[in-house]
Protein 1
Amino acid sequence: MKILVIGGGGREHALVWKLRSSPLVEQLYCVPGNAGISQEAVCRPGDILSPSAMAALAEEVDADFTVVGPEAPLVAGIVDEFHARNLAILGPTRAAAQLEGSKVFAKQFLRDHGIPTAEFAVLESPEDVAANIDRFGFPVVLKADGLAAGKGVLILREAAEARAAAEQMLAGKVVGEAGHRAVLERFLPGEEVSFIVLSDGERYYALPPTQDHKAVYDDDQGPNTGGMGAYCNYAILSDEQRSEILARIVEPTLEAMRRQGCPYQGFLYFGLMMTGDGPHVLEFNVRLGDPETQPLLFRLDSDLLPLLEGAARGRLPDSAPDGAMAWLPGPTVCVVMASAGYPGSYATGKEIFGIDQAESLGAKVFHAGTKFADGRLVTAGGRVLGVTATGEDLPTTIDNAYAAVARVRFEGMHYRRDIGVKGLRRISAAFPEQGRSS
Ligand SMILES: Nc1ncnc2c1ncn2[C@@H]1O[C@H](COP(=O)(O)OP(=O)(O)O)[C@@H](O)[C@H]1O
Ligand SMILES: [Mg+2]
């Protein structure tokens, strides 16, 4: 089969890398891709925000199936366009993608269906700000309604600061149009978990839990980024927590989407806060996470293609070994290596060295912001690489990932030294990694 992957970051490199190992795949295309992807697939330029341009590209390369990495094309309606042209694609329709495309929609959906989430108010005017700003205590969380590439959420410590930020957001001065409506919600203390499922509209598979590391510096200090690293380990959740997430959050969400005439097909990411009062939904993402995809797919033992195609056809395969998702036994860790200055402004064009040495240790170096310039591999983004490794347990896996990181270098590179360390604190005899299956 010929497969088209849409996007050009670390998540898409992991998708391309995993799909390339499928015996069913003859030819892989990626738009726009990056330097790493170009070594494993044919990269094509194109406007990924234009559903009709993407459908035309799929037709031109004669793609049998298309996989979408990022949210923006889904929210723009790429799946509806492909369906209208009878092209096979996996992902939610534009209507279903509102779960991520509008935080107001997501919060009202959660409330209407009794799915645990923080109490909230919708803000549309300065009067709404005045009437609600004190309602949830402090700190309080302010979220732009629309897509804001990770820059639309502010945590505010007191009333004056919160009021000013909310007024500015509604005036379009924080994230532009995306902030013309906003959600104000109660701050929930706890630990965050990324919980992703693959749904065919009717049935679903739960992927193992992962944790992202959003803050730029160790110990969750400094400004938020797109994600400085992630790890995957069953011990992130106890059996009870996992069952509670499935029963109180995942199943009611998929059921409600079906009842609304909008069965959800594709990956659905539940951003959860594990509070003293059980798991709560912070947000939905209508696609795989980045960087969570890198440690997840590095660990996936099954052929990915039949799973994606099955989900798109409304018929997830149901029996092992071809069907159910099988996972390699060890945990996985992905350390993101970023450009100097990121998440603020940064320079690009710095030559990158040492990837072969890192990979000779058994790691996989997924490319995010890279390109070839005059035959040299150079940086081309804030997040540059995702160095991903496995091992027999979490401490060994962390060591393996950082041993590979130590082989890579480019001017100004920085990375967190504590990816996965949260997980070490949780290791206990109660939730052994060994012997668990998904
Ligand atoms: N109600 C909340 N309580 C505490 N922290 C929150 C809350 N909502 C969001 N956050 C924090 O803000 C981050 C970003 O919020 P999220 O809803 O995931 O939006 P986005 O990913 O679109 O920026 C979360 O990962 C979490 O760290
Ligand atoms: Mg988020």
Protein 2
Amino acid sequence: MAEYPFRSALVTGASSGIGEIMAGRLADAGVATTVVARRSERLDALADRHTGVEPLVADLATEAGQSVVAARIANGDVDLVVNNAGFGTNGDFHTLDPDRLADEIEVNVAALTRLSHAALAVMVPRGSGWLLNVSSVAGFQPAPQLAVYAATKAYVTSLTESLHEEAAPHGVHVTALCPGLTKTEFQRVSNADRYADQFPSFVWTSPDEVARCGLECVVANRTLAVPGTQYKLMVAATNITPRWLRRRASAIVQRG
Ligand SMILES: NC(=O)c1ccc[n+]([C@@H]2O[C@H](COP(=O)([O-])OP(=O)(O)OC[C@H]3O[C@@H](n4cnc5c(N)ncnc54)[C@H](OP(=O)(O)O)[C@@H]3O)[C@@H](O)[C@H]2O)c1
């Protein structure tokens, strides 16, 4: 069983996928964990399976939902905050529902920013704390067909890198977790089911590997956590590839 330096944690998007596994790992390690999502029955089932799990039902696309979770963090007894809730919308930008895109920006960007602020407002004066923001390798280049999603994740990575530098002198660890393709409900929710047939098995990482990597990297105070050798190589290649070529390659991959 893993051992962590945190006594308490709050994980958003814990009703499925990466967040659910991360919350389970934390609870099994004896970390009291508040789990946030909209589907209360999923959160209750998680609390039944693991001791020390406390459900907090909130819709992070809403002002009210963000306020409830920010207030929970402001209580001051949360050591680790994981901003994991997020989703994408696959398709040609001009054909997509603008209200859904607005919700996507609200959850991926606005809620994450507000909860990061709530976390650091407590952690920096305290001189300790851990903040893990879940981004994506999609944030390292534009992604035609997932344009808004890639833009939100570019924001998450940039924000988190800045916060890492600001918080480090205060003893607070801030890390961006940047997974590649991971089999969760994300593909169904994001209208990207075709990815399962389109991409070979070696490109897929498991949610277990992603959750473990994220927690280990925030403990180690890494700025960026990229799970999987294939994605570490991809990110290294991206860093030395001209911008136009990254964009074209991304468009070809997305078209399938
Ligand atoms: N899977 C991938 O290939 C992949 C790759 C890179 C990055 N990521 C990122 O990893 C994170 C976790 O995704 P996942 O793959 O685990 O997907 P997932 O299985 O679909 O889980 C997404 C979680 O976000 C929550 N969520 C979505 N909208 C919400 C809202 N309005 N309010 C509160 N919670 C909300 C969902 O809970 P409810 O529906 O119950 O509210 C769910 O618990 C996301 O930020 C995603 O962008 C995923």
